[in-house]
């Protein structure tokens, strides 16, 4: 049976990608509502070729939909997620609000599918940070070797900070080429031709929110509460696509060859031929598609290292939200 769906945050980069992918996957959807804050009311959003008028979430009655996908950030999730459920809608939430709640499943495709069984009516499913999902998908493939320690440095594109950040990178770049001063609004330092070693606020130990989110969400997703994780999250002057330089220690030694085999078996795209025409994949080739790309798999001492690249918006968020919707549909939550 076809259902009605609301996308909250429909005018932002993530909302646009979710609408695009919902249309591409051709789900049994009767009607889509594009919702956002009242300021955005009337803006166009596109569900495939269909132009939608964005409605104000403040005035929306969630009893109209079977499913609401929230990609509008923590404030709107805090305000409307429980109201949507109370009106009978299932909710998929891409925000930090419920990721650590003990009674809310943190779900990512191919990692912990069983969590979606038996959720009851109007379920709430939380979707991980885009910096976490592709990494967790790779690690779950290596889990049979016994994960002990994960050390990761992320190279995060500016689209992770939204549309205004894309514009800031573009305008700083052109300003520098025409000998004008680069203006800064989104980032505290110049992002063009630079890298910024801090994403989000820091705690008393100096660990950033983004780094903490990698640590905590990985442990919850992989159901390994004692996993040792060290993350360093860095913003780089790239428009779309995140990169991850990962090192893992496992109980059983994993050869590079075996690791490639395990990663390929869960659908990761392996491009790893240093002498070949395509030696490795960069965020540029990862952008615009839903794959998680793996390169540079190698052993270093007693650890295994590799490189990942994925489109942070399309592969890591939109694909997760839409796959979650499909998984809920398959289990009959909207019947
Ligand atoms: C980023 N992961 O890439 C963040 C967004 N939540 O900036």
TrEMBL record:
The keyword Transferase does not apply. Gene3D superfamilies: Dihydrodipicolinate Reductase, domain 2 (3.30.360.10), NAD(P)-binding Rossmann-like Domain (3.40.50.720). InterPro entries: NAD(P)-bd_dom_sf (IPR036291), Semialdehyde_DH_NAD-bd (IPR000534), Semialdhyde_DH_dimer_dom (IPR012280). Pfam families: Semialdhyde_dh, Semialdhyde_dhC. SUPFAM superfamilies: Glyceraldehyde-3-phosphate dehydrogenase-like, C-terminal domain, NAD(P)-binding Rossmann-fold domains. Keywords: Oxidoreductase. Residues 4-119 form the Semialdehyde dehydrogenase NAD-binding domain. GO terms for molecular function: aspartate-semialdehyde dehydrogenase activity. Its EC number is 1.2.1.11. PANTHER family: ASPARTATE-SEMIALDEHYDE DEHYDROGENASE, DEHYDROGENASE, PUTATIVE-RELATED. Belongs to the aspartate-semialdehyde dehydrogenase family. This is Aspartate-semialdehyde dehydrogenase. The lineage of its organism: Bacteria, Pseudomonadati, Pseudomonadota, Betaproteobacteria, Neisseriales.
